[in-house]
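Q: What structure does this chain adopt?
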Amino acid sequence: MVDVLDKRIQQIYEPVQGELDEVVEALRRLVSQTGPASEAGVLGHAMMSGGKKLRPVVTLLASQFHPHDRNLTITMATAVELLHIASLIHDDTVDESTIRRGRATVSSLWGGKVAVLLGDYVFATSATYVCDTGNVRVIRRFSGAIMELAKGELSEHFSTHDWHQTVADYEERIYNKTASLFSTASECGAVLSGVPEPDCHALKAYGYALGMAFQVMDDILDFQGTEAELGKPVGNDLLHGTLTLPALLFAQRYPTEPVVQRLKNGSRETEDLQQVVEMVRNSTVIDETLAFADRYRDQACGALHRFERNRARGSLEELADYTTSRRT
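A:
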């Protein structure tokens, strides 16, 4: 299955693989130019930790509908990936996570202080890249994304163990935490390519819906995946008090379940949380949550209907479909 998915990703990325290679090379140069070996070591661990590079790919694919200066969009895609990396470093530190993608986190290896400082450094570096585009609209949108990412993290923190939050609360939170950067990636790629304004709006809408589908699917996999696939324990979010869509739907469907009532009354017992993880895994709410992800996937593909069919549109459509069928 892994080989099949890797081949599928290669096919999706093919129209922009050359530009993506330049993004990866820019990240490598940043590491090599850092300075002392100790600093390069921690930065390299964060920068070269793998990942599918979805956000820079979205930036690059969104730029393929109009002739443009490829150096600008490569710079923007690098900025987007740096912002994503910085947000992961801070997320792992705040959440006290020890593992990310099957590897030890920066905070677990070097401590929280180093992780916070490194995250700040990568945030600042991303800002210098986006400024190099010289486009004020792009710089403003990128700044807004940083604010939204922080707002999403704050919202997640203050909603921990809150069983009275709504699905609408959840959707607002995942927009800020995840979809805002996907939306920024696609909009900025479009803006820098010089497409007409209606096309910019359509590509921004694509990024929004793709990001929402991606996060909903992530939250499904937190219950359905395996620890080997996820690189973290199954049900990890709920065990730490983060209520995602499957848990919220389960609580709505089964409000009289004794364990649900205990949690709504303030229980934070590990046994109760583990029981709900197992109940969610074996309930119909997983299918209901998949329907949410599929609706966002269809919304993303619908935003592309205004464009003539080309390799970039095909890859963006395939990426949306991949997002709701992945296992990691």
